[in-house]
Fold each of these.
Amino acid sequence: PLLLASQDGRVVAAVHAGRRGMLDGVVAATLDELERRGVGAGQLWAAIGPCICGQCYEVPEQMQAASLARESECGSRTRWGKLPREAI
């Protein structure tokens, strides 16, 4: 989860920004909506909730490729170097 609040406390938002949400632009859409409500990104406090790290999260190779095509910096390998699940 991503928690956002205006510095004056008038506006708050909780965003589920997992892999799918990130790729679907949920965070950007939330920031756009807050901007429409008069709160710019520079006026926000943000906190990132618990999440799984990329080195502990396995996905099929096709899903990784699709994610990297959208967000080139979101790729990683498991710390134990395991192959994607499709290869097993």
Amino acid sequence: MTKTLIFFVTLGPIGYFKGSGTYASFIALIIGYIVNFVLGGFYTFLLAFLITLVGFFLTAHYLKFSNKKDPPEVVIDEVAGQFFAMCFVGISIELSLISFLIFRFLDIFKPYPINKLELLPGAFGVMADDVFAGIITIFFIIFIKNLILI
């Protein structure tokens, strides 16, 4: 297993911090906001999709060398999920922070059906619950945008 692979799936040292998922999501929040600001939400979506695909394959490889089903140091799944959560926030700082809070809530507490996705085997189980939490967050953001007109 290469150092580059480990760096990518763990975001370097971030994956080894206590609360690593929150730190990784916050980094994705900042980068996602910049991408939204400079390029727009479509490119945030493309980045989320790309990170999901690459993250899946790299996580599958990482799991071959791990004795854990969902290693806590693997945080690329949180990055992908938070990027999906950022797709419809535009350049609103408020909606960006709300997307972060909703995504973290869904990722930490894993309400149904998110909790079922983490039962999938291998990299599917690692990535799917976070990606789906990000997609569910999109619906909350759209609802909030239409309700409050942010």
Amino acid sequence: MINLDHPCDRVRVDSHSPKATSLYGTLVCCVAALLLFVQSCSPISKADCLYADWYDKGWEDGAKGEPLSLFVDYSQACAKHGVTPDRAEYESGRNEGLKEYCTTDMGWEAGSSGFPYHNVCPSDLESAFLKGYEPGRKLYDAETNLKYIEDEITSSREQVSDLEQEIEELQGIVADEDTDEGDRKIYNRRIKEHERRMDSLDDRIDELRVRRTLAQAEYLDALTDVKAAGFDVPLWRILDMR
């Protein structure tokens, strides 16, 4: 039996209704968006599968420090288009690209930018790469941690300030002789809740201050390692720790 109160049944009853047309249009848009999303997630386009120079593709990936497992993703994506990538050419190009990537300067750039290292450098080049990557990554991690703590302190202080303002407004309402006694009790309870929340935030701020002190020490230690490794940190990047 058709239930005319059910929206799906109403659509089946009159497929030419404005609602049915609207639902159909929405469905088409969703499907189209899904197809675009799936295509955008593909590691390689159909055109690249068909016409790529696999040596050049390997060189590009090697120069960016991409893992060899990326070739497996290419193979799976290209198989859908009936194409088998040339692994020998890809690896040959990638090995040459890694020579560009596995240097001390590139290690510094990658590490200080927070990029992961996929253990791609050959043994004869890895030590040079890590000489730049390790102090760079240490600095990036120390910066990120310190900035996070500072942001948390700022956010907590702003919440305390907002609560103080709300409490002041509520106290004014409570003190107003025209305020109903029942409402006054409700507002007083809300004031107590805000005060408890402020106490909790104050405790968190104290905890964050301790963590900030430790994070600042780690950051200074990272800066020392960077300078010892022979790298200069631009002034814009040095955090204000006042």
Amino acid sequence: MKPRSFTMELGGRELKIETGKLAKQASGAVTVQYGDTVILATVGMSKDAREGIDFLPLMVEYDEKMYASGKIKGSRFVKREGRPSDEAQLTARLIDRPLRPLFDERLQNEIQVVITTLSYDGENDPDIPAMIGAATAILISDIPFEAPLSGVRVGMVDGEFVLNPTVEARNRSSLDLIVAGTAGHIVMVEAGANEVPEKDILSAMEFGHKSIKKICKLQEEIVVAVGSKKFEIESEKSVEDTSDIKQKVLKFLGNRLDDLLSINTKLERMKATDELQNEVREALMKDFDDKFSKDSISAVEEKEKEKSRLNEEVKEVFHEALSEKVRADILQKEKRIGGRKPDEIRPLSINVGLFPRTHGTGLFTRGETQVLTVA
């Protein structure tokens, strides 16, 4: 592939995405430059799927390099770079969160996304270019991915929204909001702020999403120009069609999810959830037993294999139905788990001086969550 370069204006600076120059053996690789900050994002996928897992084996690494800012490690004798810093690990998680839900849920191949800082100008943080680069590398690779994804940072300086504020501007900002999403939806939000009105937070999200749409459009152009044909996921045919299983599960559940979600105590609710899921599984397994003959060893083995697969599908459909019910209750009935309203907080309490020999103790309780601090 010949090197290709794509540019756009973003927050008063040029965003430049290049591919075909570095990491040519990766499934997808791009460099992203914003100001004088440059990152390299690469992605690779294993040839074979991992059988028997119910999660996406995705690993995101964000690698800070001291040479990126022209520095050498301070130790006189040890010049190697050490383990990832806390900030690097948090940045990797920041990138992972919006990426993960956009992969095909059937995908079980191991995927590695590695982002390396190549240059840091001290003004433009690498995290936003890293997020854009990671998504773009996946988009141009052969890995199935739902839609273009990007992210921006929104600050508020002197009452005005600022797109991707510099480090200096962030120090003066009353809001530090990171928004990630597709052209149609916001997927992830992370924020820190002083006391900022809720309407300003919502306006900041809308402000950031306008720029996200523009970046997604650029990513679409890149995919058309240099994108690879997507990998086709081989899905084994199940005894029961998933839609048929879902109908049977929903019919069995009826209104029982209402009773389940009205339980206030977490442990009791978890126990009731497990019991209800087991009831659903046993009910569907009764209908399954007559589908296979036991006349031969091969038939028995085939039955056990299909039974295991059906068990996993029932588990998946049950949790999907539970999630849809929770979401529907919040949006339509304004009722959260345990019967709380959307704006209702759990009971709060603070206790101090719990232990006689410590300098100080504090116990903060919010509902069933507790934090004990000892000094």
